[in-house]
Amino acid sequence: MLTKRSERQARRGSLAAAVDSQAAGGFDRRTFLRRSGLVAGGLAALGALPLSSVRKAEAAGPAVAGATIRKNICTHCSVGCTLIAEVSNGVWVGQEPGWDSPINRGSHCAKGAATRELVHGDRRLRYPMKLVNGQWTRISWDVAINEIGDKMMEIRAKSGADSVYHLGSAKFTNEGAFLFRKFAAFWGTNSVDHQARICHSTTVAGVANTWGYGAQTNSYTDIRNSKTILFIGSNAAEAHPVSLQHILEGKESNRANMIVMDPRMTRTAAHATEYVRIRSGTDIPVIWGMLHHIFKNGWEDKQFIEQRVYGMDDIRKEVAKWTPEEVERVTGVPGAQLEKVAKMFATQKPSTLIWCMGSTQHTVGTANVRAFCIALLATGNVGGPGMGANIFRGHTNVQGATDLGVDIATLPLYYGLVEGAWRHWSRVWEVDYNWFADRFDKTTAADGKVTSTMNTPGIPSTRWFDATLLDKKDVRQKDNVKAMFVMGHGGNTVTRVPQAQKGVEKLELLVVCDPHPTTWASMAPGRKNGTYLLPIATSYETNGSRTASNRALQWGEQIVKPIFESKDDLEVMYLLAKKLGFADQMFKNIKVENNLPVPEDILREINRGGFSTGYCGQSPERLKSHMANQKDFDMRTQRAASGPNKGDYYGLPWPCWGTPEFKHPGTPLLYNTNLSIKEGGGTFRPRFGLEREETLPDGTKRKVSLLGNGYYSKDSEIKDGYPEFTLGVLKKLGWDKDLTEAELAIINKINPTTPDSVSWAIDLSGGIQRVAIEHGCTPYGNGKARANAFGLPDPIPVHREPIYTPRPDLVAKYPTLPNAVQFRVPNIGFDVQKAAVEKGIAKQFPLILTSGRLVEYEGGGEETRSNKWLAELQQDMFVEINPADAAERGIKDGAWVWVTGAENNSKAKMKALVTERVGKGVTWSPFHFGGWFEGVDQRANYPKGTDPIVLGESVNSLTTYGFDPVTGMHEPKATLCQVRAA
Amino acid sequence: MARMKFLCDADRCIECNACVTACKNEHEVPWGINRRRVVTINDGKPGERSVSMACMHCTDAPCAAVCPVDCFYTTADAVVLHSKDLCIGCGYCFYACPFGAPQYPKVGNFGSRGKMDKCTFCAGGPEADGSKEEYEKYGANRLAEGKLPLCAEMCSTKSLLAGDGDVIAQIYKERVSRRGYGSGAWGWQTAYRETIAT
User: Chain B contacts of A224, Cβ < 8 Å?
Assistant: First the structure.
């Protein structure tokens, strides 16, 4: 036999050498343990040992001589895994684990470990293309920008600015997202949206309406501190695999309860201590069922409710209706199991609640989210380690893109669309307010009143094709949507694909800016002209910051230059702005080098205007220093114990108050009163008024305070609730003396007539924030969270059956909301539900259809299905069906089936996966497929060589009508279908 | 001397397939060849568990025992490697292997399968460490660079461990005592004729 004994010692720090020296000194164990993933804390005792051999091993360097190391962030979910790339001669040749990251510690999932392939570019779009009489034709960038710009101006002249829809991306960097929103503002429309609409828009609305900010309160790593972890509508093992590193380690070391509530026994549920099977769309009854036991047994946190919550008594009244019998009748969950779970959640604290799209993507999405928040509030599980609403977002930067206002209802950083918001950004952008006002369409109502669309929310991405297809008079803007300008967003990710196809065919202009052609290019075979495909660099080919789900920002550096003829998003926006004639105004304070806006300058502009959300302290310099010194940050606390960023929390999670010079460390946990504000503490945000008038049963009225009641954060000089800070408030407290002259001058300039009204959110000097924080106070005030969110369609969440429910018998008692016009288009959900019941749809389509993620793919899937290392692992679109349902239909595992949907005579051909994972009467499909339609392969519709390796039917060709009234969220998680053997 | 082993902690494996694609990425493994794969038992049922499987680099490897051309060898680190120059693609090792590790680029009988390919514990092959020839036939040689197999290094939940058998056994023991249960070091009895007492 051959025995290989290589001369490794002589070469580099080899493993054999390492093992030899282990016997002698023991320090190589350190390298090894680091690589084996043991926590650094356990190795403290070894810290003093000499590290010569460790260095040797680490200094062994990349496999390719002369390769350089570049750090970026994986783009496939919001965990924010550091990605280490080895680059040689401009080629990305290898990927190494990023051990120093306090988030992923070297780990990846299938997507992260395969991500290098994206930049190899086998299936990437190589150059700009245009559809000419049904043929894809190569064009130059100059021609593309010119023709697109001319057509946009033509549509603007004819139909108005709102007829050009701007669909952006959660894969933008923060700088890209901000610039895209700014671009839409300069163009003159609020119809600017991105993937957050269809993943967590209802979370943002529900959470922000409860306690102030609509984001994950804690973090992935903080779940290590939880004693009870409750998942509802989240399959983190597939959607956020690296989060499970923290969750499973926490579960093991705390012997924590891990409860998974889901219609499917998911891969996450496989690791749970308790699995609760619920019927799709019955989240509220499940939570109310839990609260029923909690209130009945007095397990609620009475002091917390008294001090920090408004309106919990109103919840008690609604919860009283949800007896264990009624809960079981509606949800299918036995009362005894729910009592057990409720007891764990309320008494084995800290408890956290994790939710995802299984709960948000419903007509009752916002109400679902509100119910979750209320469960946390009732049990006192907000504002401390191991607690909180751990909302796992989807893409790398869906949090950042949401924050930066790629949204129909707000300007960057949640300033809204009111005049004050526009004036704030006008000041930051140094562009006259009236200039913006002129850019927007004006509409005249029946009573002759003229309104500008500047102050009205745009059309959600779930409804763009309704705005194209509906009669002009039914769309509350100047004209229908005539053009889609799409940057980094799939076409198959929204429900009702057959309708979307009709919409695509009717568009005058379709521009798709993406690394891949995407389903937009293939989904409308009837479209022969007016489509442009522009090749865009992936995030790995750009510089810029991204915000992970835990609100922490990380700076990613360009790994390689954009491949082929691809361009950076920022460059395309600049070129188009130049063509459209507003580049000088738009890039007034942003340096542009070779047509590429400098991302650092854009982030500085975000800092200058980002006070409302605490995006003001994260300068590019600070973020780059965090990235370069990741090793200084402790994984458990996320804080740097030493080094240049000592005291900072990793990534300066927002709110990071004041100017960068103020050196706020960031806020790792929102609303944590155990820390002073200066150290990352916080209070609930009173943004719903200071008091509320209530009418008692006898008709008398009383005013109830919405400010905190006898609670405050550490070191606060005000020992009770207080309103938000303005110059006037500072004056009343006598703290205005602490403002510097320079700060005061800026404040006076913002509002020369009534400077007292200038608030912490619009004070561009950062002085008001600084002074409030120096006195231990939160700039936004100290209020109560709202159990009763007056102002929402359902201030107290109530159960409402899905539009297409398998239980028509429950519709009379739990109907959906009445029809209404929302976001410029009608929502006729009530009529659709009523018709479905009357027509007996549930008899024709007796199976629930719900959708979800696979670990190998992401989103609409065109990018990941083009990656050969991933595509090999999932080669077919499939539907999971219970063995009993399969047997009734003569369906065998792995056989082809036709799945038919309740609308549009829709049908889709896919493979059957017969499994007990889904209960009887339930089917499930992944939502990542596209490129087939009604059983026909659409591969020929892609430009040659750019078709994804794996194609399949989109589940959204089967999903149906239904929209959340608060955000326009669609309902792909609860509809009906029928399955038969093909 | 170190004795390299793999250990998959089935209570941690979530079937995320990072190990599979990390391997593809590191060694540019072609479509159809899977040096590593994740196997799930009781899929979709209570008690579902997954384990990541590849060549376990057995003590007294059965593949080596049946190889008619004696192409297998064991390195000083106890990694089982083979020579693709000697391999005739007969497939005997595939039948002998208790873990289904050997892979072949083609389908067929009697030597027409092509040269066998399998997990190298990221240790390359008989050619010079880090050489182009070694990379083309066997992929990267991380061990020679002082690095461990990338599949384990990138494992999302630190389920898959690779390294000195004693050290990874110790890590596993500590986990089991902390969590109070353990489903055992899957495949160790078969591969290494031992198990981890917990």
Answer: none
Mutate one of B157, B171, B173, B198 to test the A interface: name it (highest A CB count within 10 A): B157
Quick check: A36 and B152 CB within 8 A?
yes
Residue range of the domain that includes A46:
1-60
Give yes or no for A276 touching B (CB within 8 A). Answer: no
Same domain, A698 and A580: no
By C-alpha distance, the chain B residue nearest A64 is B130
User: Cβ contact (<8 Å) for B17 and A32?
Assistant: no
Contact A36 B161 (CB under 8 A): yes
pTM, to two decimals: 0.93
In A, minimum Cα distance to B68 occurs at A1
Residue A456 φ then ψ, to 5°: -115, 135
Strand B160-164 with B72-74, pairing: unpaired
Contacts of residue A434, defined as CB under 8 A and 6 or more positions apart, other chains included, come to: none
Q: Give ipTM to 2 decimals.
A: 0.96
Domains of chain B by residue range: 4-192
Q: Are A521 and A943 in contact (CB under 8 A)?
A: yes
Chain A residues lying within 8 Å of B75, measured CB to CB:
3-6
Rounded Cα distance between A947 and A940, Å, is 8
Tally of structural domains, chain A: 5
A270 and B48: CB-CB below 8 Å? yes
Smallest Cα distance from B112 to chain A, Å: 23
Consecutive 10-residue averages of pLDDT for chain A (982 residues): 37 36 35 39 32 32 70 96 95 95 97 94 94 97 98 98 98 98 98 97 97 96 98 97 96 96 97 97 98 98 97 97 98 97 98 97 98 98 97 95 97 97 97 95 84 95 98 95 97 96 97 97 91 97 97 97 97 98 97 98 98 97 98 96 97 97 97 97 95 90 95 97 97 97 97 96 97 97 97 97 98 98 97 98 98 96 96 97 98 98 97 98 98 96 96 97 97 97 96
Architecture of domain B4-192: 2-Layer Sandwich (3.30)
What ranges make up the beta strands (E) of A351-482? 351-355, 389-391, 442-444, 450-452
CATH code of the domain covering residue A944: 2.40.40.20
The CA distance from B148 to the nearest CA of chain A, in Å, is 8
Length of chain A: 982
Q: Are residues A948 and A821 in the same domain?
A: yes
Q: What are phi and psi of A962, to 5 degrees?
A: 140, 125
Bridge partners (DSSP) listed for residue A449: none
Of A391, A416, A437, the residue at which a domain comes to its end is A391
Are A697 and A649 in a shared domain?
yes
